[in-house]
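Input for the complex:
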Amino acid sequence: MTPILFLEQGLNGIQFGLMLFLLAAGLTLVFGIMDMINLAHGSLYMVGAYLMASFVQATGSFWIALPLALAATALVGAALEVTLLRTLYERDHLTQVLATFAIILIANEAVRLIWGTQSIMLNAPAGLTGPVELPGGMRYASYRLAIIGVGTAVAVLLYFLVTKTKVGMLVRAGASNREMATAMGVNIRLLFTIVFAVGAALCALAGAMLGPILAVQVGMGENILILAFVVIVIGGIGSIRGAFVGALLVGLVDTMGRALLPVAFAKMFPPQVASNLGPSLSSILIYVLMAAVLFFRPQGLFPARG
Amino acid sequence: MRSAIRRIALLAAALFAFNVQAANELKIGYLSTLSGPAGAIGVEVRDGFNLALKMAGGKLGGLKTEIVFADDTLNPETGKQLAERLLKRDRVNLMTGVIFSNVMLAAWPTIQEGKVFYIAPNSTPTSITGQGCNPHFVSAAWPNEGHHEAAGHYAKSRGYPNVYLIAPNYPAGKDSTTGFKRGYGGTISAEVYTKLNQLDYSAELAQIRAAKPAALYAFLPGGMGINFIKQFVAAGLSSEVPLVVPGFADDQDIIRAVGEPMLGIFDTSHWAYDLDNDANRKFVAAFEKEYKRIPSLFAEQGYTTALLIDNAVRAVKGKIEDEKAFHQALMSAPARFQSPRGNWKFAHNGTPVQDYYVRVIAKDNQGRLVNKKIGTVVSGLSDFWAKDCKMK
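Predicted:
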């Protein structure tokens, strides 16, 4: 384990963590403020990525397509909230899970009908396809560095939005005590729609930024949704700060585990066994982390409700 | 009561008669991976197959031909169920199409129970060609280790002191490293297996950078290869470590997605776009006309599979239910038709014995990125595991 390898894996972990944060931020607000379990959050991530692919094809530019995809997905999210999810707030969690699971299935089939079954390969924008030289002589993919930049910027922006603005204050009020906020005359309906649209736009941002690294395909939302839920459980439901810390923890633990465990196992077992054990154990690591957090702090690291 | 039994018996007899008659038409069960990141391979093979079918006037071997397509979505369990459906519900009398070895191994017992011939257009796993060989399995592609063994020979000829291996963790992935090591015979810097259909290779690329191998051999088919090569180039490793891949990991399906960064990658293949023979020129021209793109070796495999079926069915005059005669017709078919890959024949275990070439990604005279043939690595390479096949 050289320092360079350690550093590179650290960057990889932060990059993955920041993308998880984009997903978890929306999810944690919806869960925390509206007390709504939204399994279809991953579908918005998928729809965002597909819209991005379409806009890139139509405009030919990554940076023009990005705001378009964000806006379009926010609209889709708002429409979904107004037409369907709004009726679910008063229902119990089981109904919400069933209804939003149905949305996943509908969204997957809809995407198949519109974009076809084959996955779409997005390319990184021109100028970000190669590596950059970092101080210390380390080379790192410039696009991954751009992801880290965008992710950090959004995290800072969200922090200001939530702690320094009026809307943010309402969001915090809603997350810590919904009934009281309503009683104080907060227009909770409008607030919910706005929060949902912002959450959808964050999903689209994650989908669009990860598109060139992964692949845009049907079902891409389901796997990452599970991780996003782990993140908000670790961070504390309804807390943006918790989502941020939780996402970075999960990203780093997953990436470091993937890199370190096979190296450690390779010294003990033959390569085929080691490469079987490494990835499976590193994916367990995340859940071990979650279990440990839940054991010591059942409310998560930064609970929103006092 | 008696009349009821008689009626059932009559019905059964009628069904049986219908079944035998059905052999006058060719009903091919085509089980393939047509969706998801790996779906591009299935589409290439299918397009090659369909092209040959179209050129034969929609009739393979002179029989009315119906193809029943089924998409396994790279899920072995789904593949097994679909194979069962094709055999029992659709009552196909020939099968082909499987792309991935994990699907092949899961579906193979079912296909065997169905007692139909299976003509492999791609996956040819060693466990079906070695000890478990069977006359019902005939491959028009290459034994799973073929390209890798050839790539090993190539790495040896280049004199790389050590090679780093990376492959997905599934049967063909292990076949690939075994094949490469047999051809290469040198020091293996490390042997890494990734999850099948993994899309982010950042952790593996960081390890490769730290290991500083003399060369990297990557077997990552379909979308995995697209992502790996893109990320390999983006991480700046392409200027540090020479990359060698099997021919199916950097062909047109991947070149279309990645583009210029792939210039200069070496691979080994049983076929090349610019291979100098009439059948190949005809194939490439027809494919480009039909699909407006350059064929990949997968398309050639689908095309040759259809030609092989066409020729063998014709040789037995459509009586494919005569298993012995049909098997013989299949095994002797390569001598009777021209394949774009040139001359080849079958080993006794039903796998091709053929030449492998080394190709490099370069621009053709129209400025398009193609895999140019630069030489022959091995001639008449046959499946190593044929030695374990007791079949005659």
